[in-house]
Backbone:
C-alpha cells in the first residue's frame, strides 16, 4: 500500500506537470500567431532599386592637368539633389582608388549634401531656369586633400563640370565645408566665390 505522503506528492507533481503542459501549449500558440502576423505584414514586393543610367564624369588627371570625360552606368535616384550627390560620390570614389590619376582620399562619404537652388532674379521664377548647386563637403575631406593650386583647382573644376554634365540647369557652383563657408579647399583654391559650371567642361583632353 502506497503511503499517504507519497500519494499526495504524486498528485502534486501530476498537477504541476499538467499546468506546465498547458502553459507551454499557450506559449507555442502565441508564438505561432506572432509568426503568422509577421509574415502577413511583410512586403509582398521587393523594394524598388533606382535604374542604372549613364552618368558623365569629368575626371582629373594630374599627369597633364586635364579633365577627361568618363561615362559610367550608375543607379541614380530621381530626386535631383540626391542624383547630384550620387554622381559626385562616384567621382570621389575614383579619386580615392589606389591607382587614381588624381589621388584624393575620402571617397563618396566626402559629399555631405548637395543643394540645388534657383538663381536670383527673373530666372528664379522659371521652374526650368538655371540653378546654383551648393556642395557641402566634409571637414575630413578638406583636411586630407593634397595641398597645391593645381590639384585643388582640378578637384573643384571636376566637381563643377560633373554637376553641369549631368544636371545642365546647374550653371553655378558654391562650396561649403561642414555647412560653413571656407576660404580655400586646402590652402589654395578659392572657395569664397561661385564657380561657373560650364567653364569647367573642357574639350576632351584639354586643360580646364
Residues:
Amino acid at each position: 500500500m502506497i503511503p499517504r505522503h507519497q500519494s499526495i506528492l504524486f498528485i502534486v507533481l501530476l498537477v504541476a506537470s499538467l499546468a506546465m503542459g498547458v502553459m507551454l501549449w499557450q506559449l507555442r500558440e502565441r508564438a505561432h500567431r506572432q509568426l503568422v502576423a509577421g509574415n502577413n505584414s511583410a512586403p509582398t514586393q521587393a523594394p524598388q532599386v533606382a535604374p542604372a543610367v549613364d552618368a558623365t564624369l569629368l575626371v582629373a588627371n594630374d599627369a597633364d592637368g586635364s579633365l577627361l570625360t568618363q561615362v559610367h552606368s550608375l543607379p541614380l535616384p530621381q530626386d535631383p539633389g540626391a542624383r547630384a550627390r550620387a554622381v559626385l560620390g562616384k567621382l570621389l570614389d575614383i579619386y580615392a582608388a589606389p591607382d587614381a590619376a588624381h589621388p584624393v582620399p575620402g571617397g563618396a562619404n566626402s559629399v555631405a549634401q548637395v543643394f540645388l537652388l534657383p538663381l536670383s532674379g527673373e530666372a528664379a521664377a522659371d521652374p526650368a531656369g538655371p540653378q546654383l548647386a551648393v556642395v557641402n563637403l566634409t571637414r575630413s575631406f578638406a583636411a586630407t586633400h593634397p595641398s597645391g593650386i593645381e590639384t585643388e583647382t582640378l578637384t573643384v573644376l571636376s566637381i563643377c563640370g560633373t554637376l553641369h554634365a549631368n544636371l545642365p540647369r546647374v550653371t553655378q557652383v558654391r562650396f561649403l565645408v561642414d555647412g560653413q563657408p571656407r576660404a580655400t579647399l586646402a590652402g589654395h583654391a578659392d572657395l569664397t566665390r561661385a564657380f561657373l559650371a560650364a567653364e569647367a567642361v573642357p574639350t576632351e583632353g584639354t586643360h580646364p
